[in-house]
Amino acid sequence: RLPNEAKISCLEGLLDVHNKSWDTKPTNFEEYFNRQFGNGISELFMSPYNFKVWAVPPKMMSTEWTGERVATVDLKRVSRNIINNTDDCGWGPNATFRFPQRGGTGAIWSALAEKLPASKQRIGSQNRITSINAEKKIITFANGETLGYDTLLTTMAIDDLITSIEPSEKLFGGKETPLAAGCVPQSEWPTVAKSFVYSSTNVIGLGIKGKAPSHLKTMCWMYFPESDSPFYRCTVFSNYSHHNAPEGHWSLMLEVSESEHKPVNLETLIEECVAGCLTSNLLAPEDVIVSKWHKRLEKGYPTPFIGRNDLLAKVQPTLLANDIYSRGRFGGWKYEVGNQDHSMMQGVEAIEAILGVGKEITYFEPNTVNTTKEMTRRLSLL
């Protein structure tokens, strides 16, 4: 737990902003959480943690994405917990969740893929899209094969998508083609593409001999704002299911962000993470690590940077007018509706919109879907 001095600083900061009002809206994410939590929590957690997770200075980020992603403060509840010196374990929007017994979250999508005819699936690097002819509605893959389409629903990162579309004055802002308000001609798309901001994600897995220590037996994931560990989050992955580690072993999953603002030494990263685990009491010196694993994702987080919505508005209406739906975590580039469940519903609703039987609420109305408490939805096509 925090020392009393830190608790007092956090509480005083909350009290300072509790009844304070501002004449203008916050202009960036840093300003937003300073107003929301006060200096104490901001300096101790929000500022260092958000830089570690986003790999971008919070003052470069916008505020429209926050919604329930950044929980608000119940001052009475905080005060009561401080006085009673109690932990509030049921706090936050992800206090409970479901997880597959076997195969991790990938098992969900593998099960869905099995329901599709194998002849309709094109999986593998050879099926990477290299170009799109929007006039003829033809896709070309890395292996040279082509495929025609009527309407294209794609989860390609939108910066990669718009640079993959072949030039067309007829469709994208040439002399014969009027553009919707705010949209830019295709000649400006390369500049738009370079303006999108994202961070890379490094996932490190550690397999450890024995059983998880008592203080980690009920833990799911933990956040680390401190500078003495490279990871911003640690998950006791073996706690999610006993199938996630062989008998007599347990495991940790660590996440490290990376960007031009926060470079990472990939050659030493695993050992730096192990050292961070020792410093953070996740591992003990006598623990025996039997396996180490590292996966780097070039595009990990679609940053909600200042001007993101304006940038999307420069190309998305034009794509849609030409039967191209760019959706998904990076296809839609809206972090607030970029989780797996959100991304799936973006696909479901896009198909319903294409067929004329539904609206795209998830992508276009993030606040609506993120404030509902309903956990299921009846698909109109079923």
Short description:
Helices cover 32% and strands 16% of the residues.
Detailed description of the structure:
It is a single chain. The protein has 382 residues and is α+β, with helices and mostly antiparallel strands. Helices cover 32% and strands 16% of the residues. The strands form 3 sheets. A 5-stranded antiparallel sheet has the order 6-7-8-5-9. A 3-stranded antiparallel sheet has the order 1-2-3, with no helix packed on it. It has a two-stranded parallel sheet with strand order 4-10. Strand 2 and strand 3 form a beta hairpin. The mean pLDDT is 92.
Q: Approximately how much helix is present in the residues? A: 25-40%
Please tell me how large the radius of gyration is.
23 Å
String of helices and strands? HHHHEEEEHHEEEEHEHHEHHH
Q: Which shape, going by the Cα principal axes?
A: globular
Structural class by sheet pairing and helices: alpha+beta
> What is the tally of helical segments?
12
Which spans of ≥5 residues are poorly predicted at pLDDT below 50? Answer: none
**What portion of residues belong to β-strands?**
15-25%
- Strand element count: 10
How far apart lie the N and C ends?
50 Å
Biggest sheet layout: 5 strands, antiparallel
Mean pLDDT: 92
| Lateral strand order in the biggest sheet | 6-7-8-5-9
